Amino acid sequence: MSLRSPAEAFEKVPTIIFADSAAAAKALAQEVKEIITTKNKAGQPAVLGMATGSTPVPFYRELIRLHKEEGLSFKNLITFNLDEYFGLAPDHPESYARFMAEQIFDHIDIPKANINIPSGTISSDQVFNHCRDYEQKIDSVGGIDLQILGIGRTGHIGFNEPGSSRDSLTRRITLDRVTRQDAASDFRGEQNVPHFAITMGVGTILRAKKLVLMAWGENKGGVVAKAVEGPMTEAVSASFLQDHPDARFFIDQGASRELTRIKLPWLVGPVSWTPRETRRAMVWQAFKTKRPVLKLIDEHYNEHGLSDLLSEQGPAYQLNIRIFNQLQHTITGWPGGKPDEDDTYRPERARPFPKRCLVLSPEPQDAIVGMGGTIDRLIEQGHDVHLISLTSGSLRVPDSEADKFAGTLLELSSNAAKPDEWKAQVVYGKEALSQLDAKGEFGEDTPVLRQLKGLILRGELRDAAQALGLDHNHVTFLDLPFYEQGRYRRFKSTQADVEALKKLLLEHKPHQIFLTGDAADPSSVSGITFRLLISALQACTGEEFANSCSLWLYRGKERALEAHEIDMAVPMSPLQIERKENALNRYSALSSLEKEAPETNRENARNYDSLGLAEYEAIEVFQRCRRN
Ligand code: GLP
Predict the structure, then answer these.
(1) What's the CATH number where 219 sits?
(2) Of 74, 160, 326, 336, whose CB count within 10 A is highest?
(3) From the CB of 54, is ligand 1 less than 6 Å away?
(4) Beta strands of 206-308 (E only): which ranges?
(5) What is the bridge-based pairing of β-strands 618-624 and 568-572?
């Protein structure tokens, strides 16, 4: 785990790529332990800057473990949180004060008086004084020893949105549209997300003695690369970490994917030309020169730092043909395999036919977003397709929807010819309405409300599936416990989740599984369900189906696959993309990214076309999944 190396020449902040977020969290927690112990010995308090969001959760869990299992005491720790939503009381379920209490402070022995979080409830005329006092308090305890940071999609640290200056101090700020979109699921809709926050400034953050910014999952890949390799700019406040003598990025593989050393390794040093790296370089070169693969010539290779590849695998024309054929072989109109055809160069094997296909959707909309057209084809080609929503999706449903459905139920009951037969429904509807009233807009949903909200989405998914020709009884909801008992950004999975998935697999004994979430933030619903599925599959080792079934990764709301990553490309006719759009329209609350799915499918087709392959209307893409 050395820091600078020639391959990291493009990086302006030391960046450490860990195997996964758990390993990074462990390493960081060890550093904190050392700071606390050293300061303790010197008779001084340790001062830690804290962050919220899903990113630091594994780190907080590790600190709690160190406290409970290794007796690490936090009695001499003082903390300062980066930010708080303006307008939210500390007991609001989405306030950062509550988040911190639930995720760490309630589980360790830090004195309450040592915890500092900007207030979300001071009046507007007190904001200035409050912020000035916050700054002074940080200085009065000797400054922050280590500041923990996450990063938002706009590149913000704390809530320092684009435009925040290098020297900005603690202040009230207006949240960016993108930030509010990203918080929409926490608040059950963008319209409920606060517009303002109080945040430490960039200047406040840079006064800390050490800084560690953590980022997980490939959705953060783009912004991490901008912050680490791009110019220092107010447009990406995290880029100012380049201006600090002791700042580091701790990231996982997903978040590293846009760094030059990972994305374009041939620009920074010698490369071992594996088939995947070769394909990556060829596709990149073709896009860069705006030429189809078959028209690349020696000059292009040389001008793009690929002379090494050319001398190892050339001449150019042979190499071009080889890669062209590989790309060509990813295309198939038979995602379940083409029966009675030679399948040597086809992505999926021909036999058995028809196949038992299990399409797994983390939340009810994901599979239709990622592979609606392919579901349509699989059904059309006679496979036995089962669509399983792994969770109810109930956390996405706003109270207003539950209110509407409970109201409709009561309305129906009161108009019934035999009111006696509707007693149970009346009780249910009334109970739901009174629980909605009692909990307030963002309060924790009761089991009854969760159930009602889940039922609403069941209807939507069945409807969407039907638009693709999938029968009601081929659509199932698994309601995994981690989701039903959790909240966004702080889910905790257990063995019960693995067991439920194992049971599902044993019931279906699929020949083909479609899943997603390999590259997602490990704390997101798709990231969690992906890891659970791999564990469940491992628990089925020895079963015949588990050894032979093929696993295909699709992409839901995460970044689309790039051409060199694709193992199976399923073309869609204009009619099919229309059917997919129809199916997506059945959902009432798709995010803007989810709504863009058909456009992404069209973009895939344009990319294949410009590489010199056939020109289709749209393409859904898949990657083969490694099992460990
Ligand atoms: C919010 C917080 C940031 C955090 C960001 C990313 O904007 N104010 O401090 O880094 O969210 O959140 P997550 O870690 O959930 O991706």
Answers:
(1) 3.40.50.1360
(2) 160
(3) yes
(4) 210-215, 247-251
(5) antiparallel
Note whether 144 and 285 are same-domain residues: no
Q: How far apart are CA 387 and CA 374, in angstroms?
A: 12
CA of 158 relative to ligand 1 center, distance in Å? 7
The one-letter amino acid code at 390 reads L
Length of the chain measured in residues:
628
CB of 217 within 6 A of ligand 1: the answer is: no
53 vs 183: CA distance, rounded Å = 10
Q: What is the pLDDT of residue 418?
A: 86
* Domain identity same for 384 and 310: no
**Domain housing 420:** 356-402+408-624
Residue 185 beta carbon below 6 angstroms from any ligand 1 atom: no
- Per-residue pLDDT reduced to its tens digit, 440-451: 767 788 999 999
In a domain? residue 2: no
Give the DSSP H or E segment for 407.
helix 399-414
pTM: 0.91
Specify whether 368 is located in the same domain as 397: yes
Q: To the nearest whole number, what is the mean pLDDT of the chain?
A: 94
Q: Please indicate, yes or no, if residue 307 is contained in any of the structural domains.
A: yes
Residue 90 lies in a domain: yes
User: Can you tell me which residue has the tokens 């910014």?
Assistant: 213
Query: CA-to-CA distance for 303 and 287, rounded, in angstroms?
Result: 14
**Cβ atoms within 10 A of the Cβ of 528, count?**
25
| Residues designated catalytic | 161
C-alpha to C-alpha distance for 156 and 150, rounded to whole angstroms: 8
* Shared-domain flag, residues 447 and 464: yes
Structure tokens at 4: 């600078």
From 21, 50, 156, 177, give the residue whose CB has the most ligand 1 atoms within 8 Å, as the site to mutate.
Answer: 156
Provide the pLDDT confidence category of residue 269 given band limits of 50, 70 and 90: confident
Report the nearest-CA residue for atom 13 of ligand 1: 53
From ligand 1's centre to the CA of 216, what distance in Å? 11
**b/e map 97-135, b = 16+ CB within 10 Å:** bbbbbebbbebbebeeebbbbbbbebeeeebeebbeebb
User: How many angstroms does the Cα of residue 554 sit away from the middle of ligand 1?
Assistant: 26
Domain assignment present for residue 343? The answer is no
Binning pLDDT at 50, 70 and 90, where does residue 6 land? low
- 56 CA: nearest ligand 1 atom: 14
Examine residue 354 and say whether the peptide bond preceding it is cis (omega within 30 degrees of 0): yes
Residue found under tokens 């001062």? 47
Examine the domain organization and report whether 245 and 282 are in the same domain. Answer: no
Instruction: Write the pLDDT tens digit of every residue in 563-617.
Output: 999 999 999 999 999 999 999 999 887 877 889 999 999 999 999 999 999 999 9
Count of domains observed in the chain: 3
227 exposure class (CB count in 10 Å sphere: 0-12, 13-18, 19+): buried
Ligand 1 centroid to Cα of residue 120, in Å, is 17
Ligand 1 pocket member 183 (CB < 6 A): no
Are the CB atoms for 45 and 114 separated by under 8 Å? yes
147 and 271 within one domain? no
CB atoms within 10 A of CB 479: 17
Same domain (yes/no): 52, 198: yes
Q: How far does the centroid of ligand 1 lie from the alpha carbon of residue 183, in Å?
A: 9
Q: What is the pLDDT of residues 50-60, one digit of tens each?
A: 999 999 999 99
Cα 549 off chain centre by: 26
CATH of the domain at 391: 3.40.50.10320
Atom of ligand 1 lying closest to residue 521 CA: 16
